[in-house]
Write a structure and sequence with these properties.
about 625 residues; flat; 3 domains; mainly beta; 7-stranded parallel beta sheet; 9-stranded parallel beta sheet; Endonuclease - Pi-scei, Chain A, domain 1; Hedgehog/Intein (Hint) domain-containing protein
Length: about 625
C-alpha cells in the first residue's frame, strides 16, 4: 500500500497499481494541475489492476493520466482494476478563456482504456483535454459509477453545464448515475458515443449531449429515466422538443443548431413510457435552454393495499425483503420471497390537464371486477396491471368513470413496489394483480437492477391490443350499470400555417381534401398548426394510442410565380419536429405544430396546398 500527498500544484506521481495493491493520492486544498502517469513521464500509459484512490480537498484538481489530447495515453484499467475518486463536494470552476485557470475537478486523460470500474463521488468531472482538443476517448468494456457528480461552472459562477463536458468520445461503457450531471461532446460539436448504456437512479440526474455530435451517436441506451431527471440536447439559447415512440422505446429530441437548422438525436430509453408525460423544463444554465423531463409514475400500489402473504393479508407498505408473498398459478398458491421493496413519491401540483390526469392514481372500486372483487377499493398507478382473462391489462385502459376511475382529487402521494423472485400474479385487496416487473423505465434507487422485459421475463403477456381490451372494458362497464357510448368522429380539423415563426395564416379555400393557403412576402419558414386529439380519449381508454394527433397530411405543394415545388420531406421517413413517426409513404400524422423545413419562397407571394386525408383517427383505430 502506498500513500502520497500532493502539497503543491503541478505535482505528479506513478499511477501504476498492481493486482492486490492499493495506491492512494491525497491532493491538498487548491492544488491544481496534478496528475498520475507511468514512470516514463506524462505521456506514459500505466496499468491499474488493483485499487487506485484519489482524495481531493476543496479546490484541488488531478488527472488520471497526462494533461493533453488523445496522443497523451492514460490509464489501462484491467478487469479487476478500480479507480476511486472522493471529492470535497464543491463544484469545480473552469475559465473558458484560459483552460489552465481551473480548479476543483477530476479529469480522465486523453486516451483511457477501462475494462474495470471507475467510481467518482462528490466531485466535478470535467474533461480538460476534451474541452481544449476535442479528441479524448474512453474505450473498453468497463463500468463508470457517478454519485453526486457535477459539471463545472465558469469563473463568474455561470452554470454553462454542457459546454464543460465530462466525456468526448466514449465506447462500450456502462455509466451509472445517481444525483449526477454529465455532458457528452464539446461545444464545437465534436465527440462520439458507441455502445454506451446509461442507468439513472435516485432522480435529479442531468444528461446532456452537445449539438453537432448527433450523427456520431449510435448504440446509446438510457434506462431508469424518470421524475427529476433531465435529458438535454444542448444548443445555446434553444429549447428541446421530444417525441416518444411507445412501440420502439425511442425518444427523439429535436433542437436547432443554428437559426433554421433543425437537428435530431435518437435515444433508446426503453418501453413503458406515456408519450404525453414528456415536457420541456428549464435546465441549469443561465440562458434560455430547455431540456426534457418525464413525469409519469411507476406501476405500483398505494398505501393501504392488502397483499396476500404466507401469514395472511398485509399492508403493502410494511412488506420487507425476505417476506413471503403468495403467487397465484392456476389453482395453486406458491410462496415467493420479496427481493426488493421500494417506495416512490409522486408529486401532483399541476393544473387539471392531461399531464396531471396521467399522474393521478386509478381507483378500482369494490365489486368492480366481480362480486367482492376487489373486496375493498384498490388504488394503483395508471400503468399498474390487473390480471384478467389470461393477460395483464394496465389499469388506465379499464377506466369507465363509474366503477374504475382516476382519483383526480388526490394530491401528492407515495406508492410501493414489491419485487418477488420472479414476476407473479398476486392477490391485492382480493383482485388479481402483478408484482413489480423492473422494465427499467423509471428511477427507483434500486441497486443491482437488471432490466427485464414483458414477454421474456413476465409470467403472462401484456395485453394492450384493442381486440382484447375493449370487450373487457364493455363487460366491466355493463357490470357497473353503465352504457358504452360509441365514439363520434370529429369534424375536419381547423388548421393554419405559421409563417416565419410569427404570422398565422388561415386557409384561403378548401376543395375536397385539398386545403390552399395564400402567403405574402418572402417565406423563410413554415409550420403547420392544428388542434389535436388523443385516440385513447376520443375513442376510449381501451385504445392504447396516447399520441396527440393533429391532421393526416398527404401531398404538399408550393406554387410561386417562378416555380412549383413538390414537398416530400414528411413522406421520406426520419424524424421531423412536430410530426409523428413515419408509418407509410403516402401520408403522415402531425402533432399540434409540425415544421416544414426547406419549404420556402423568396418571391412576393405564393400558394401552398396540402392534401388532408379523410378520417379523424387512424383507420386501424376507427370505431
Amino acid at each position: 500500500m502506498t500513500d502520497t500527498t500532493f502539497w503543491m500544484s503541478l505535482q505528479s506521481g506513478s499511477g501504476t497499481t498492481k493486482e492486490g495493491e492499493t495506491n492512494t493520492f491525497n491532493v491538498n486544498s487548491n492544488c491544481t494541475g496534478c496528475w498520475v502517469a507511468g514512470t516514463a513521464g506524462q505521456n506514459d500509459p500505466f496499468n491499474v489492476d488493483g485499487t487506485l484512490i484519489f482524495n481531493l480537498a476543496a479546490g484541488a484538481s488531478v488527472s488520471l493520466g497526462g494533461w493533453g489530447d488523445a496522443s497523451y495515453r492514460g490509464a489501462i484499467i484491467g478487469q479487476g482494476g478500480k479507480v476511486e475518486v472522493n471529492g470535497s463536494g464543491q463544484q469545480g470552476t473552469v475559465n473558458s478563456g484560459n483552460t489552465w485557470d481551473t480548479s476543483g475537478y477530476f479529469n480522465i486523460a486523453g486516451k483511457t482504456y477501462n475494462n474495470g470500474t471507475i467510481d467518482i463521488n462528490n466531485c466535478t468531472l470535467y474533461n480538460w483535454s476534451g474541452d481544449w482538443h476535442g479528441t479524448s476517448s474512453i474505450t473498453g468494456f468497463g463500468t463508470i459509477n457517478l454519485t453526486n457528480v457535477t459539471l463545472a461552472k465558469d469563473q463568474y459562477g455561470n452554470q454553462d453545464c454542457y459546454w464543460y463536458s465530462s466525456f468526448v468520445n466514449v465506447q462500450t461503457q456502462t455509466i451509472n448515475l445517481q444525483n449526477s450531471q454529465i455532458s457528452f461532446g464539446t461545444k464545437n460539436g465534436d465527440g462520439s458515443i458507441d455502445g454506451v448504456s446509461i442507468n439513472c437512479s435516485g432522480g435529479n440526474n442531468y444528461i446532456a449531449f452537445n449539438v453537432g455530435m448527433q450523427d456520431n451517436v449510435k448504440g446509446l441506451s438510457i434506462r431508469g429515466f424518470g421524475g427529476g431527471d433531465i435529458i438535454d440536447f444542448g444548443s445555446r439559447g434553444y429549447s428541446d422538443n421530444a417525441t416518444y415512440d411507445p412501440q420502439t422505446g425511442i425518444l427523439t429530441l429535436a433542437t436547432y443548431n443554428a437559426p433554421g437548422s433543425l437537428v435530431y438525436l435518437h435515444i433508446d430509453i426503453g418501453l413503458g413510457y406515456d408519450p404525453t408525460q414528456f415536457h420541456q423544463v428549464k435546465t441549469y444554465t443561465g440562458s434560455n435552454d430547455y431540456g426534457i423531463q418525464y413525469d409519469g409514475p411507476a406501476p405500483c400500489y398505494l398505501a393501504g393495499t392488502l397483499i396476500e402473504t404466507d401469514t395472511g393479508m398485509k399492508p403493502v407498505e410494511i412488506l420487507r425483503p425476505g417476506d413471503i408473498v403468495l403467487a397465484i398459478e392456476g389453482d395453486r398458491r406458491i410462496g415467493r420471497r420479496v427481493l426488493w421493496a421500494g417506495k416512490t413519491r409522486i408529486e401532483r401540483d399541476e393544473p387539471a390537464d392531461r399531464r396531471a390526469l396521467a399522474t393521478a392514481p386509478v381507483v378500482i372500486r369494490r365489486n368492480a371486477l366481480a362480486p367482492e372483487v376487489p373486496f375493498r377499493d384498490l388504488h394503483v398507478t395508471a400503468e399498474h396491471c390487473l390480471f384478467l382473462s389470461g393477460g395483464f391489462v394496465p389499469a388506465r385502459m379499464l377506466v369507465n368513470g363509474i366503477s374504475i376511475s382516476h382519483d383526480t382529487e388526490r394530491g401528492s402521494y407515495d406508492v410501493y413496489h414489491i419485487e418477488l423472485e420472479k414476476h407473479s400474479v398476486i392477490n391485492a385487496n382480493g383482485a388479481l394483480s402483478e408484482s413489480f416487473l423492473d422494465t427499467g423505465h423509471v428511477r427507483l434507487g434500486k441497486a443491482g437492477s437488471k432490466v427485464q422485459e414483458w414477454g421474456r421475463d413476465s409470467c403472462h403477456p401484456l395485453r394492450t391490443d384493442r381486440d382484447f381490451v375493449e370487450p373487457l372494458h364493455r363487460r366491466l362497464m355493463s357490470l357497473a350499470g353503465g352504457r358504452e357510448e360509441r365514439a363520434v368522429q370529429r369534424a375536419p380539423q381547423e388548421i393554419a400555417l405559421l409563417v416565419n415563426g410569427a404570422r398565422r395564416v388561415a386557409p384561403l379555400r378548401r376543395s375536397g381534401n385539398t386545403v390552399v393557403f395564400s402567403l405574402e412576402g418572402p417565406v423563410h419558414s413554415l409550420s403547420l398548426l392544428a388542434t389535436t386529439v388523443v385516440p385513447g380519449e376520443s375513442i376510449g381508454p381501451y385504445v392504447d394510442d396516447r399520441r396527440e394527433l393533429g391532421v393526416l397530411v398527404g401531398e404538399i405543394h408550393l406554387f410561386s410565380p417562378t416555380r412549383t415545388v413538390s414537398y416530400t420531406r414528411h413522406l421520406e421517413g426520419g424524424a421531423l419536429q412536430g410530426w409523428h413517426d413515419h408509418e407509410n409513404t403516402t401520408c403522415r400524422w402531425t402533432g399540434g405544430r409540425a415544421e416544414l423545413p426547406g419549404l420556402h419562397s423568396d418571391g412576393e407571394c405564393c400558394l401552398v396546398s396540402l392534401v388532408i386525408m379523410d378520417g379523424a383517427v387512424p383507420d386501424t383505430l376507427a370505431a
